Structures are given as structure tokens and as C-alpha cells.
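Q: What would this chain look like folded?
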Amino acid sequence: MEDYDNEPTEGFVLHKDIKRYNWSHFSSHRTMIRVYDPRGVEFEITTENLIGILMNSDCSKRALSGKYVYAWAGPELVLLPTSCEEYDQAANYTVLQAAKIGAKDLVAGCSYKTKKEDDLVYVGKYMWYEFGNWYYSDKPNTRVGKKHYIFTEDDGKSFLLKSSLDFLAVKNSDALVSNFAEIIEKFQKNPHSSDIVKWEVIPCEVDLETGMRQYNCTPALKGDSVYFKMSGDTVIQYQLQAQFKYNNTAKVDEEKYTPDGFTVSEMYKLDVANKAQIKEVRETMRYSGYYYNRPAERHYSAEEIQKHGYGNLFVILENGKRTKVKNLYEL
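A: My prediction, written as C-alpha cells:
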């Protein structure tokens, strides 16, 4: 057996078609094209591959003009002409795999291309504060910070934490992205960017407007369903749900559901004094993300809900920024 480098090669010749008959359950029921490689081997390609070749190259008396390389499209071997766009993309991808970016090459605000051909903006190397994996733990976990290389791919809507730079390939440009100041502002307002020095629950009117879910045509709260209270040094997160009676005789989906009040569930607690999360306190069993054995819940009217004094949660960060928190488990 001889090994050959997968370099652009010319001299490929179409040999014959091979029919895979459907009398055998081992058959693919497809017609394949056998091709001769000038280095002395034969292989088979699909008819779709042949059409792609003929769209980018000429064929005279079964001889294919131009140079070709081998490639894979999923599990299938493909003969790829060097004159097609896909070859240029594959060649560029191969170059990216060998490229490297070191820590000294990083410039905050510049855009970089990864080895998967994604574009990321480097924000900088900063501390990132978060609780441990308290969601699946019975023990509280304190909030700690650790330094990471931080990137964003969506202008600061979310941030990627990296401990290594092996995934980077090349710098796109030496110029800073035009919105880097806005990205830094969003990062500094992110509750993970700095330690928390103060917690505030601001009372608000609860949005109890309901509407139909588009994906399953059932009613639910249209606005936020998560609200908070503060009791001493403990922040408590509540989940509100609208309850409905079902009328099976109604012809229109919206008319099948009659409002029947609202339920409130105490979901998570946080010990502010010790900066420790407490696992969910809802009085149900939990298994693989689903609740069961839920106790009977009282239904409250809209007027009763508004009197409970729920509010929105804000945190004051060590860097002086004030930001709203949507869920305790995101911290």
C-alpha cells in the first residue's frame, strides 16, 4: 500500500458507472461513477459530485480537465476541482487550522477569526464572578471570581470565557471595532464582570396580562413571570403563573380558556450576607429538569398579587455599575 499527499493533481478520467441494484438490502440503490486516478487507483463518486465537477471543469472523451483534490462531504468521498469556490473555502479552512494567536498578539477591541471561521471581538482579560454549580447541589456555593480571556460574538449581548487561545487563528484587522466602547459598557454592567456590593429590590406593579403561546396555543403571562422580595439578608425569587379553566366545547382556542387566578411559587433564595446561593426551595421533587408531586397551590386574584409587594432585583457592582437581574441562577 502506498500513501499519497492530497495535493492538487491532474489526469483524472471517468471510467464507468456502477449501479447498486435494489435486490440486496446491502445496496445503496444508487448509481455511482468510477473514476481513475493517474497515480494508479480507482474510486467511486456520486452522480451529484460529477454534476458539481462538470459545472466547474470541462470533460473531453472522459478525461477531466484541471486539477483536483480529495475531500469528504459527511461520510462520502468527494473529488473536488481546484477551480471551484468550495476548494478555496476548504484551503482557507486548512490554513486556519495551522495558524496560531498568542497572548502577546491580543489587542482588546480587535476582531479575530477562530479555527471554526467564526468572528469574535476580544474584550480583554478580566475577572469573571459567578456561583458554583449550585443548581444541582444541595450545598450552598459562594460566589468567586477567576480571570479569563473574554470575547463576544454579538456586540456584548453575551460573552465567551476562554482559558486558552488555541481556538484562535488570525487577527481580522489591526483597527478596533467601531462599537468597542459600547461593548465595554455592556461588559461592565454584566453582573459577572465585578463583585456585588449591594442588593436592591425595587417594588413594582406586576404585569398580569395574559396571551396565547404561539407554539401550542395555550395561555400564559405575556410579560415577566419572575419577581423578587427581600427579607432581611435573604433575596427570594418567585415564579408567577396564570391559571385557567378549560372549556372543551369552545370552538376557538382563545375561548377555551377562562382565567382562574394566579399562583405564586417560591423558587430560589440567596443569602446576601454570606454571598451564598441556597438550592431551590420549591416544595416539590425534582428529577431531570421536571417537577412532580407538586402540592396544591392557592389561586390569587390580580388584586391580591399586586398587594404582595413583589419587585425587580438590582445589584450594585464593585465597579459602581447598577444592573437589573432577571434570575438568581444566572449569577
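DSSP finds four helices and 24 strands in the chain.
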